[in-house]
């Protein structure tokens, strides 16, 4: 698990780059840690097409609910969302 703290008055997406770069997943076998995670769980503040595209390109599945004012409605795995 990896998290980034940002100032309270800033938007959540300011820390997104550091959040994605910082998380390393320990391998079950021997070797260097992986640099990507299988899932990224975020709240509606991270629900932008740009963030979702960046995650999918890196092989990470976004678990982020859509905002009510977004046009596209995609699949959302409620079972993985806390």
Overview of the structural elements:
The chain is α+β, with helices and mostly antiparallel strands and 82 residues long. Helix content is 20%, strand content 7%. It is built from two helices and two strands; from the N terminus they run H-E-H-E. The protein has helices at residues 16-22, 49-57, and strands spanning 39-41, 61-63. A two-stranded parallel ribbon has the order 1-2. Strand 1 (39-41), helix 2 (49-57) and strand 2 (61-63) form a beta-alpha-beta unit. The longest helix has 9 residues, at 49-57. The protein is globular and about 45 Å long. 5% of the residues are buried. The mean pLDDT is 79.
Summarize the structure.
The protein has 82 residues and is α+β, with helices and mostly antiparallel strands. 20% of the residues lie in helices and 7% in strands. α2 (49-57) links the parallel β1 and β2.
How are the SSEs placed, and which strands pair?
Blueprint: H1 16-22, E1 39-41, H2 49-57, E2 61-63
Parallel strand pairs: 1-2
The end-to-end span amounts to: 14 Å
Helix content: 10-25%
> Tally of extended strands?
2
Instruction: Please mark out the parts with pLDDT under 50 across 5 or more consecutive residues, or reply none.
Output: none
> SSE string, helix = H, strand = E?
HEHE
Which class do the helix and strand fractions yield?
alpha+beta
User: Strand sequence of the main sheet, in spatial order?
Assistant: 1-2
Task: Count every helix, treating DSSP H or I runs of 4 or more residues as helices.
Answer: 2
Shape: globular
DSSP strand (E) fraction?
5-15%
> Largest sheet, if any?
2 strands, parallel
Radius of gyration: 14 Å
How confident is the prediction overall: mean pLDDT?
Answer: 79
């Amino acid at each position: 698990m990896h998290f980034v703290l940002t100032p309270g008055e800033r938007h959540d997406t300011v820390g997104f780059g550091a959040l994605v770069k910082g998380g390393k997943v320990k391998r079950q076998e021997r070797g260097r840690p992986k640099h990507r995670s299988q899932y990224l769980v975020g709240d509606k503040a991270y629900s932008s097409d740009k963030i979702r595209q960046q995650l999918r390109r890196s092989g990470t599945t976004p678990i982020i609910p859509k905002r009510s004012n977004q046009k596209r409605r995609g699949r959302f795995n409620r079972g993985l969302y806390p």
